[in-house]
Every structure is written in structure tokens, then in C-alpha cells.
């Protein structure tokens, strides 16, 4: 997280991080969601890019909380519930 904050203040690093985040995380998940829409497994009105971004935002938040709270934070349960929430939202 410290590196993410640092890189956001450095123009050349910010560009690298944005590209990596978009191409390696969001685009990957967005492609899966789009395939699910195409095969009618997912709702047709799901906003692919927004759902992909929200998913990773929740995962990042869970990781940040765990980095501070350690074993006092039930990260596995939070991951499970995040997955369940996203699937309930997108499944047809």
C-alpha cells in the first residue's frame, strides 16, 4: 500500500501502475464478466467495467484492513462474502 501511495505521486510510476491495474486486473475480470453476459449466465444489464473495478476495490480494502488488523480480522470470511455479493449481483 505504501508503494501504491508513493507511485500515485510519481507521474512515470502512476502511469505504469494504472496500466498494470487496468490490463492485468480489471480487463481480465471484465472479459470473464462479458463472456458470462454473452452466454446469459450473467444479467444483461451488468456494467462490466464498474463491477470489475468494484470487485478489485473490495479486495484491496480487505487486504489493507488485514495488513493493519492481522489475525483480529477475518479476511477469509470477508473474501467469501465479497465473492457472494458480486455473484448475487451479476448472476442471471
Automatic annotation (TrEMBL):
Domain YfiR C-terminal: 1-69
Gene3D superfamilies: Tetracycline Repressor, domain 2 (1.10.357.10)
Short name of any one Pfam family annotated for the protein: TetR_C_17
Domain of life the protein comes from: Bacteria
Protein name per its UniProtKB record: TetR family transcriptional regulator C-terminal domain-containing protein
Origin species: Neobacillus pocheonensis
Upper taxonomic lineage: Bacteria, Bacillati, Bacillota, Bacilli, Bacillales
